[in-house]
Structure formats: structure tokens, C-alpha cells
Amino acid sequence: MQDKIKNLIKEALKNLGIEDVSFVVEHPEDLKNGDYSTNVAMAGAKKIKSNPKELAEKIKKELENKLPKEIEKITVAGAGFINFYLSRKFFAQSVEEILNKGEKVGKNDALGGKKIMIEYTDPNPFKPFHIGHLMTNAIGESVARILEHSGAEVSRANYQGDVGLHVAKAIFGMHKKGMPQDMSASNSVLAQYIGDSYVLGSEEYEKDVEAKPSSAQGFGGARKEIDSLNKKLYDKSDPQVNQVYDWGFKITMNAFQDLYEMLGTEFDFYFLESQMAPIGERIVKDNLDKLIDAPDSKMIFEKSDGAVVFKAEKYNKEGQPKLHTRVFITSQGLPTYETKELGLTEEKFKTEPNLDLSIIVTANEQVDYMRVVAKAVSLIYPEHEKKMKHIIHGMMRLTGGKMSSRKGNVVTGESFLRDTIALIGEKMKEREWAEVEKNKVAEAVGVAAIKYSILRSASGGDIVYNVEESVSTEGDSGPYLQYSYARANSVLEKAQKENILPDPHTFSVEIAEVEKLLYRFPEIVLRSSHEYEPHYIANYLIEVARAFNSFYGNNLIVSKADKASSYKIALTYAFSSVMKTGLHLLGIVAPKKM
RNA sequence: GCUCUUGUAGUUUAAUGGAUAGAAUGCUGGCCUGCGAAGCUGGCGAUGCAGGUUCGAUUCCUGCCAGGAGCACCA
Q1: Which of residues 247-306 of A touch strand B (CB under 7 A)?
Q2: Protein-contacted positions of strand B (CB under 7 Å)
Q3: What does the pLDDT read at residue A511?
Q4: Average pLDDT over residues A294-304
Q5: Distance (Å, rounded) from C-alpha A432 to C-alpha A142?
Q6: Coil, strand or helix: which one is A194?
Q7: Å from A535 (CA) to B61 (C1')?
């Protein structure tokens, strides 16, 4: 439709003898200003030195000569906007179209045939799954689904730090705490124990680092022990330590798995840091050799103070973010995160042959060194340079309340989920459903509340929660969307009972706001996938839900006495399939009742 | 100090350079003998400061002020 209008305008301009005017056709913010609007008169007026309003009138007249039947009328308003109002018939047709498509509504083929891998969540075994992981997961899963809806073949990857100091800290903490009494407790309980152990080990380590060597604690304290544990873990020399490691690894991974199930994510690939390290080391060595063979021009890595570094600032360009030097192999010969990341990149392209795009979702704190890594990758594998994309999101922060991260009482993803779900369960107390069903719905609603609060705003900024207020379930919220869906669903059930079938042809004259929004869904999906931004969908769904709820409040939908009832039911049906599909794209399930 | 990033109602936020800056929450009025009140329907309330580009700036540029993050052997 948008293109159709554009072409009409171009033709009108041609007839008026005006050329080379760039203009846009868009939806006005306010529906009062029509369904589409163009600024062509304002942009063109300067060129031919005329008054925008006069030019707008001229273009309007020209357009009216051959108005397609989808357009009801054209008006000139404001400073010279030309507004297009779509016809009754157009909206009825769009409702019919949505009915025909069902849950395929909004699908497009913009990424047809493209293979995309997206890496997100990335929690570390032996460490708590914190709310930041919840954030990466929500964004990554939603982007994955949006890309799929645009025709891409998407695989989901998870990258986990299975080695490193944090593991030693956790195992040290476990030693100190003693093993849990009930070894057959649930994964989540045992994972909590491991997470707590990590916090304890971490604290002890820090305390020891800060302590003066002369103090009683300073010698042979936690730090020394943890470092030695770390070595044992690295070379797997101590069978007892290995056993604890294997157990802890399994428990945390299983606990993560339970969470993924609750969150609606299924990964295709799990990459482990320990496996990427040797690959990365090999790559670095290969490219260090170039230093010897061809000085200056081809060297990528170089030695500095005993470490192997990449001096990325050499490649700084005007107008691009500044890069800096990073260590890839420490002076002790150990590979750093950057090196493993290199290995991971190579491994990804090997795992999925013919990959067109590799996406990584992380918090913005990693943006600077990810840029350096990306630069290194682009030098080593020029063919991958344009196939990498880093999606950056803000941090999740908590304000208010009496929480202190110093004391180690950080909010884990799981406790946050659990508290939210419990709160929803409280609201549903009155429902007379089976307990199992109630719990299932409460879980879906709780997950929706959290996911929506993450996805509702543009992904650059931080998300701030006030601990004392809980996640919202009203207004601009996930549960509001689910509620609207459940409500529409119960209307449809009633229609079925009363035997009134949906029919997109029995409309009456007035056009509801919800109709003016429904047909826009595919454009929104397309934009979200272009920009890797779920929030466009989230905001759109709120708008549609509000319009539908308003329609619901002001109309009796199911009524044998009303000739237009069948149309209203069709409209309700169209709304419900857009809502269900839209929620799916956000990674949220839509229960039939709640 | 350098680099990146963000400043919009009390709070959380939206707006490919366009119309009276849109919502939610909050406070405040009115709606359940008509399909789910997690709802509908009124009211109050905002672009950090100073310049510049433009017919037009929340948006782009410069400076200042204020948050946040990062800056060689952690990830």
C-alpha cells in the first residue's frame, strides 16, 4: 500500500512537471491525520519556490484524478501534509487476509534462504544465573524468532565459561561450606548451593588480595588455595577435584536447562570456553608467525612485555569508534577471553557451513573489547568481516529496597522469576481451576511480565527495577497483552456457543481503531527484523491491545440481534491471531485463559 | 585523564528530521443484572543547559553540565 501511494505521488509530480523530490510516506502518529501521510509538498515547495500548502492542493487534485478504490479520501493539513484515508473495504479486506493467514500473519521473506546463528544468554557453570542473563536471553530469543519470521534459518548458540578462576572459587567455597546434606535435592536447590559457594569463595579471595602480606590472613590464605585449585582444574591432576567439578558442572547445566525450558528457549549448540581455547591459541600463533615472515605490513599480533597483544589502535579510522590494545596470550602463556573468542568465531563458521550472519548478544560493558576482537577477526578472516553483528543491550539494575550486592545477596534470575510467579499466583487465587493448570498459567504470566519489561524499550539502555515495586502486570505490561488475548478468546468461545460464525463481509460503516492498526503488523515485523529490535513489536502490541480493549468496551461483539456481529467476531479473531503471533515473537506464550 | 554511552511528566518510557511530544504508572473523577475490572472512560503533569545546521530539531553538529560503562596479562 505504501509503495502504491508512493508511485501515485511520483506520477502526480511528473504530471506537474516537478522532479527529483525526495519524500516519505508514513503513518501519521495520530489516526485523526489519516492512515498514510506524506511530506512531499513541504519538501518540494522549496525546489519550485512555492507555498507548501498551495503545492499540496495541486498534488491532491492530481491524485484525485485516479484514486484507487482502497483510498477513501485525501486531505491537506498542517503545514502542508497530504493525508490519505483508507476505505472501509480496505480494512475489511485486511481482516479477511489475517483470517486466512492465521498464525502465519506478519511473515515475510526478507531473509529467505539466509542462515543465521545467534549466541545469547551465556551463563557460566558454577556461577549464579543472574538477572543479566535473563535480559540477554529475552532479547536473544526474541530476535531469533523475529528473524525466523522473516524467513531466516536460525540456530541458537550458548557459550559458557566452563574453566577459569570462577570455578576454583566455587569449589573452594564448596569445600568451606561442606557438601549439601541432601544430595538428591532438585537441580535448582543444588545450583543455588553452588552459586552461594561461588559468592563465598569470591569474597574470601578478594579479602585475601586486599590483606597485607604481613597480616595473619595474608599467607597461604584463600587466594593461594584458590590459585592452586585453579591449576589442578586446568591440568586435571587431582581426581577428587575432578569429581567435584564433574558433579557441579552437571548440576548447574541441568539447572540452566530447567530455566531455558521455563523461558521458552532451546539451544542448538553449546560452546565451551575450554574447547575454544586451543583453537584460539592456534589462530594467534599462526598469525604471530606472519610477524617473522613479513614485518610491519602483515603482522596482526605482536609481543609486548612477554605477552602477545593486538594493537588495534593502529587501525583506528576517522569517524569510527576508537580501538585499543588488548592482550591475547598472557605473559604466562595462557589464552585470554579474546583468544577464546577468536576460536569461537572460527568454530561457529565451521559448525554451520555457509553461515550468512553470526550474531552475539551481550551487555554494553563488553562493547569496547568486542570491537577489538571483531577487528582482529576481520584481519584474519576478511571473508567474515561483514557477517558478524554484535547486539548490545543495557544492564539490569535494581534500585530501592535494602539489597546490597556487597553482602552477596544479589538477585538471581531464578529467585526473580520465582518471586514474580508467586505474585501472579496470588492474583489468581480466586480462580477455580486445577492447581496444575493454575501454576502453569502463573508461570507463563510471570515470564511474560519479566520478558515484556525487558523488551518494551529500545535495547540500548539500562532497565531499572525498583525492588520494592514488583514487575508490572497492568497497563504497559506483558500480562496486559495476555489478558487481552484471553479476553478475545473467551469472546470467540461465546460466539461459537451461540453459533455465530465469523464473516469479514458483514461490516457496518464505522471503522474501529483496532482495524486501522491490525494491517500494519507485517510492516512492524519487517522493521524489527531489519533493526534487530523487538521493542517495535512490543509497543505495537500494546497499541493494538488498547484499541481492541476499547472496541470491546464500547461494542457488544457477540449478538444475534446485530447484523454486523459476524464481522466483529471476524475482527476479534484477526486480533487474536495477531496478538498470539506477536507475543510469540517476543518469546511469550499466550494462554487461552488466565 | 582518554574512549564509548545515556539525559523526555514524580517514576518507567515512545517518537525513519515533521502536525497539539505518545503511553504506562502515580494522583484524581465516572463505569461491572452487556462477551473476563489484570479492563474501559475523563482530568493533572515532560524534551538537562547554551549555541549551530534546517521551511521545520526530542532527533543531526559543537560546547557545557549530570549519570553509567570500559581503558594489557579477569571474563
Answers
A1: 273, 304-306
A2: 2-7, 11-16, 18-20, 22-25, 34-41, 55, 68-75
A3: 92
A4: 69
A5: 33
A6: helix
A7: 28
Name the pTM for this structure: 0.94
- Which residue's C-alpha cell is 538477585? A411
**pLDDT 10s digits, A480-492:** 999 999 999 999 9
User: How long is the CA A215 to C1' B75 vector, in angstroms?
Assistant: 30
Domains of chain A: 2-86 (3.30.1360.70), 414-585 (1.10.730.10)
Burial class (CB in 10 A: 0-12, 13-18, 19+), A275: middle
Question: The C-alpha cell of A229 is what?
Answer: 585449585
Provide the sign of the torsion angle of the four alpha carbons A75, A78, A82, A87, taken in this order.
negative
What is the structure's pLDDT at A194? 94
The answer to whether A168 touches A201, Cβ cutoff 8 Å, is yes
Q: What is the pLDDT of residue A218?
A: 44
Q: Cβ of A531 < 7 Å from strand B?
A: no
- CA A154 / C1′ B16 distance in Å: 27
Query: For strand B, is any atom closer than 7 Å to the CB of A339?
Result: no
The nucleotide closest to A539 (CA, C1' atoms) = B14
User: Do the beta carbons of residue A569 and residue A495 sit within 8 Å?
Assistant: yes
Cα torsion A435, A439, A441, A446: sign: positive
* Cα gap A538→A576, rounded to integer Å: 15
Please tell me the distance from the alpha carbon of residue A202 to that of residue A222, in angstroms, as a whole number: 9
Which residues 475-504 of A interface with strand B at a CB distance below 7 A? 475-477, 479-480, 483, 486-487, 489-491, 494
Distances (CA, A) of A482 to A129, A321, A450: 27, 41, 13
Closest CA to A423 of A446, A400, A404: A446
Distance in angstroms (rounded) separating the CA atoms of residues A118 and A416: 25
Q: Residue A404: what pLDDT?
A: 40
Quote the mean pLDDT of chain A: 90
Predicted confidence at residue A193, as pLDDT, reads 94
Residues A403 and A20: their CA atoms lie apart, in Å, by 61
Q: Which residue is nearest to nucleotide B37 (CA to C1')?
A: A553
A291 pLDDT more than 70: no
- CB–CB of A52/A80 below 8 Å? yes
- The region of weakest confidence among A173-187, A213-227, A275-289, A560-574 is A213-227
ipTM: 0.96
Strand B near-CB residues (< 7 Å), A 143-172: 161, 164-165
